[in-house]
Write a structure and sequence with these properties.
Elements lengths: L2 E5 L3 E6 L4 E5 L31 H23 L3 E5 L1 H5 L20 E5 L6 H18 L15 H13 L2 H26 L3 E10 L6 E10 L1 H4 L14 H16 L5 H8 L4 H14 L2 H14 L1 H12 L4 H6 L8 H13 L25
Antiparallel strand pairs: 1-2, 2-3, 4-5, 6-7
Helix pairs in contact: 1-3, 7-8, 10-11, 11-13
């Protein structure tokens, strides 16, 4: 059954097949539909903006069909041998006779001044092919390029591939702008519905501002949120942004951001935002942790913890100490001042009996090499 509906800001009209039209009041107060074009044609007429990308082909298609028919006819004529008999002009003026028929399976005497040859069709094939290729080029320019559809050679050089991909992505910019417009309209209508129709708080899940702790404050994140009409307060303006970048674009933007930050032209947060970092606060925390882990104090703490948990490292430390090498200074660069009491205890346990210091009797076993125990170097 065919259903037709017409919306206005005041009423809704429905028609179900031939059952007549039904009229309702529009409780929304607005038309709850978002309109956006997909890959549209390059025609400048606003009345044709809703037509698809193949609309310009409507005028070119009859020409392509006609020229394809001409090319097919020329191929048939060129592939079919047609014999003809020509008469020399001097013989024909002297009354040498008309062209004779050529009966099948019989010998023909042409007579003086006559010659037999094949009919050669006019050379229209090349011209027709050039015209067809020109029309096909017009169609390709008006439609989606093969690269945008995923058709590209596997041996295309890097620079050529990047340039071709950038040119193909340029044709998708109108589609990106239309999608941003329709997404913004959907959110705007949702807020209007909550503010004017529902008039109650609505619980939703998605992305929003979440608590990031005492040092971070609020930040973007996923969670469960409340959309309250008093928070909307008649404000429905919203802008959606879609990210459409290739890997080459991300590398270029990251390189430029690093250059600007290194020369103190941009702050680090602006450079990270330009590079496309999703969560700047979380990324800064990760950077701070990495920098902290590279400090001599943290390296020494890591070594100390590993020594206390690994009998193998305790044994290795004891052997190095007998050679006059402190494993902690070796691994930390010798620039960290740490508490070595745990290391001394671990090494004594290793020399005493090769046990873990946490094991019973680990520090009171038999003496190590030389019949005596040594204490760790401070």
């Amino acid at each position: 059954m065919q259903v037709e509906e017409v919306w206005t800001e005041e009423f809704i009209f429905y028609r179900l097949g031939n059952m007549g039209t039904v009229k309702f009041r529009n409780d929304f107060g607005f038309i709850p539909y978002a309109w956006a074009n997909g890959e549209t044609s390059s025609h400048n007429d606003p009345a044709l903006e809703g037509l698809s990308v193949i609309f310009p082909m409507l005028g070119l298609e009859p020409w392509v069909q006609m020229l394809m028919g001409v090319l097919a006819s020329w191929s048939i004529i060129g592939g079919t041998p047609i014999l003809k008999i020509t008469t020399d002009a001097s013989v024909q003026n002297a009354g040498g006779g008309a062209v004779s028929d050529i009966p099948l399976g019989k010998q023909v005497d042409l007579g003086p001044g006559k010659d037999m040859s094949f009919v050669v069709p006019p050379p229209v094939g090349r011209e027709v092919l050039e015209f067809i290729n020109l029309l096909i080029d017009f169609i390709d320019r008006a439609g989606i390029t093969p690269l945008a559809s995923g058709n590209i050679g596997t041996r295309t050089p890097g620079m050529t591939f990047a340039a071709a991909l950038e040119a193909a992505a340029g044709k998708l910019l109108p589609l990106q702008a239309n999608l941003e417009s329709v997404f913004s309209e959907v959110v705007r209508m949702s807020w209007m519905t909550i503010d004017k129709v529902i008039k109650q708080p609505i619980h939703v899940t998605g992305s929003g501002l979440v608590e990031g702790g005492a040092l971070r404050g609020k930040r973007k994140g996923r969670g469960r949120f409340i959309i309250d009409p008093k928070d909307i307060n008649g404000y429905y303006d919203v802008a959606a942004t879609l990210k459409m970048e290739t890997l080459q674009d991300e590398i270029t933007k990251g390189t430029h951001a690093a250059f600007m930050n290194a020369h103190n032209l941009w702050g680090r947060r602006r450079a990270m935002k330009f590079s496309g970092v999703d969560d700047i606060e979380e990324e800064e925390e990760d950077i701070a942790v990495d920098e902290l882990m590279q400090t001599p104090l943290m390296k020494a703490q890591v070594v100390q913890r590993a020594m206390s948990e690994s009998p193998e490292m305790q044994k290795m430390a004891a052997e190095l100490e007998e050679q006059g090498v402190d494993i902690t200074e070796l691994l930390t660069g010798g620039s960290a001042e740490i508490d070595t009491s745990n290391l001394a205890q671990a090494r004594q346990g290793t020399k005493g009996g090769g046990r873990n210091p946490g094991d019973p009797g680990g520090a009171g076993g038999s003496p190590g090499r030389g019949g005596q125990q040594r204490s760790a170097r401070p």
